[in-house]
Write a structure and sequence with these properties.
Distance between the termini: 24 Å
Structural class: mainly beta
Radius of gyration: 11 Å
Number of domains: 1
Order of helices and strands: EEEEE
Helix content: under 10%
Strand content: 25-35%
Number of strands: 5
Length: 57
């Protein structure tokens, strides 16, 4: 089991996103933008092709 703290992605503005695996991967990555305007996801281990980013409340 993966530690839940490893499934969080913080934006530089302070907003945190929870990383959720997709059941069906996309054919290519998509750009997800934080409320501050910075793109999130697209780089590194948690590609948007395989994971969704949900804002933590």
């Amino acid at each position: 089991m993966v530690d839940e703290s490893h499934m969080r992605f913080p934006c530089q503005c302070g907003v945190e996103y929870r990383i959720v695996p997709k059941e069906i991967p996309l054919t290519k990555d998509e750009v997800i933008v934080c409320e501050c305007g910075r793109p999130i996801g697209n780089q590194g281990k948690y590609s948007t092709r395989y994971f969704d980013y949900q804002k933590e409340k």
